[in-house]
Design a protein that fits this description.
This protein has about 250 residues and is an alpha/beta fold. The protein contains 11 helices and 9 strands. The protein is globular and about 45 Å long. The structure holds magnesium ion.
């Protein structure tokens, strides 16, 4: 009887988990009028819909200023990491806004309830990367946003450092080739992989969950793939179409 109860409860938990996929707006919710990717407006728009979080990209300029921009190319600037902040400041995004500094972006992030999914872009390994990691952590701590920020990066070394420096903070590795157990052994408790990696390794979702890890998937814009990933039981879907994903998940409830 007892084991029957336990397995029933487990089944309920798994079923609930499958329906609990949450949505992350990729580069903010930018696909609306007068908006632009990684702009303050895109963050504000995401804060107005019931997403779990809003993702954004962070690069460090040549003179050490953390800015929110995907890079490397930024309008007329070929590589944002090689430009000075003075140069970046002159750039206007597609909707006429300035490129936000990380500080300005986090300030707006603090005003909303949603999580801030902070992608630290890859910087040259060594001193530049260490500086970018250090500055990211310092700013998050200074602004008391430890509970609101989750880090993602294609740099395994940056993920390792971030997980070590901010033990309570979720860190997810983006580069799709490492099985969950190996990541966990490095102290990284989340994987955020391209959906093709989960098509190739659907078992990684369960493996990660069994290890107490979380699973995010990028960048899922087509309804069919959203359904497939929700079916696999991923915890988060990162998408350019957050309202479509929210609707799909709502319809499953
Ligand atoms: Mg990104």
């Amino acid at each position: 009887m007892k084991s029957f109860l336990i397995s029933t409860l487990l089944l309920i938990a798994v079923a609930a988990g499958a329906q609990n996929t949450k949505v992350v707006a990729h580069r903010g919710y930018w696909d609306t009028p007068d908006n632009a990717q990684n702009s303050l407006t895109a963050l504000k728009t995401a804060q107005d819909i019931p997403v779990y979080g809003s993702e954004f990209d962070v690069n460090m300029t040549a003179d050490g200023v953390m800015v929110v921009s995907h890079g490397p190319k930024l309008e007329s600037i070929p590589d944002v990491q090689k430009a000075t902040y003075k140069e970046v400041k002159k750039v206007r995004l597609k909707n006429g806004e300035k490129v936000p500094t990380l500080k300005q972006y986090l300030k707006q992030g603090k005003k909303g309830d949603i999580k801030l999914i902070f992608e630290l872009k890859v910087h040259p390994a060594g001193e530049r990367e260490n500086e970018a990691v250090r500055k990211s952590v310092e700013m998050v701590k200074k602004m008391k946003l430890e509970d609101k920020v989750e880090f993602i990066s294609f740099s395994l070394e940056a993920c390792r450092q971030l997980a070590q420096m901010m033990p309570g903070c979720m860190v997810q590795y983006l580069n799709g080739k490492i099985p969950p157990k190996e990541l966990k052994d490095m102290g990284i408790m989340g994987l955020d992989y391209h959906y093709s990696n989960f098509e190739q390794h659907p078992e990684w979702v369960k493996e990660a969950h069994n290890l107490g890890m979380i699973v995010n998937v990028w960048t899922v814009n087509k309804e069919e793939m959203m359904q497939k990933m929700i079916g696999l039981g991923v915890d988060f879907i990162t998408t350019d179409a957050p309202e479509k994903a929210l609707e799909l998940i709502d319809n499953k409830k």
